[in-house]
Amino acid sequence: MNLLIDTHAHLNFKAYKEDGSEVIKRSLKNGVWLINVGAEWDTSKRAVEYAEKYPKGVFAAVGLHPIHLQEQEIKEKNFEVVTKAEKFDYEKYKTLAQNPNVVAIGEIGLDYYHIENDDQETKLLQKQLFLKQLDLAEELQKPVIIHCRNAYQDIIDILKLKIENRELTVKGIIHSFLGNYKQARQYREMGFKIAFNGIITFARDYDKVILDAPLEDILLETDCPYLAPAPYRGQRNEPLYVIEVAKKLAEIKKIPLEEVINQTTANAKKVFNLV
Ligand code: NI
């Protein structure tokens, strides 16, 4: 069986409070490795704890997601969360991120989707938080997992400036890529990879991006518990379903499934130094 890697899972979230370990065991048994990604302090810590429990195949990313800067209630289709407000503590995250099981700083980035009335102050706070965590990634020489919603240009501008100023040498991935093929090219030219999840199994908006990008620049993820791929839509997602994303990629690119699996797994191992 060929190994698949879910580069963005949240088995550290409440949705798996009862059976997180079962889901992990099921994934490993069926040849799926995974990175549990933190969104704030508690989930970052839990991601590391999970990774420490398994000698192989379970990794962690730690970071403070931009929506956790403010306390707010977010309600969307299949997605409901009350965020806690957290102030970013650089040293605290640095200590946690030095754990050898932590393969990336994430998820970090900008999320303008939930900002009301185009509030500039909140945008500025998000940018400051993003910059601090890019510095953390650079200090520890670990790649980043970037979350971006309605903020592609700002993220591209920030990364470009940091790279030009030689303040950022580490690379990483743009998780749950929702931009267009031109934006994808800009990221790829800077050395970043793009990751797709279940969205591509039910929305055709990204076919062009997928066709335009070489397989070497693409990674797979689930973003579980959210975004379950067809035919599991509406259910709780889990790392095993990453195969559906691989199948759809193979279909869109008209290449063998095995090639998609092998190449994306090699990509994930390379980006995150997974062994
Ligand atoms: Ni996520």
Description:
The protein is α/β, with parallel strands linked by helices and 275 residues long. It has a single domain, classed as Alpha-Beta Barrel (TIM Barrel), CATH 3.20.20.140. 41% of the residues lie in helices and 19% in strands. The strands form two sheets. Strands 1-2-3-6-7-8-9-10 form an eight-stranded parallel sheet. α9 crosses α10. The longest helix has 21 residues, at 120-140. The chain is globular, with a radius of gyration of 17 Å. It starts with a strand and ends with a helix. The mean pLDDT is 95. The structure holds nickel (II) ion (NI).
> CATH class, anyone?
Alpha Beta
From the spread of the alpha carbons, the general shape counts as globular
SSE run = EHEHEEEHEHEHEHEHHEHH
How much β-strand is present in the residues? 15-25%
Assign a percent range to the helix content: 40-55%
Regions with pLDDT < 50 over 5+ consecutive residues? none
Strand line-up across the major sheet? 1-2-3-6-7-8-9-10
- Bound molecule types: nickel (II) ion
Write down the overall mean pLDDT: 95
Q: Roughly how many Å apart are the termini?
A: 17 Å
Number of domains: 1
* Secondary-structure content class: alpha/beta
CATH architecture: Alpha-Beta Barrel
How would you characterize the largest beta sheet? 8 strands, parallel
Count of helical stretches: 10
CATH topology: TIM Barrel
- The overall strand count is 10
Question: What is Rg?
Answer: 17 Å
The named CATH superfamily: Metal-dependent hydrolases
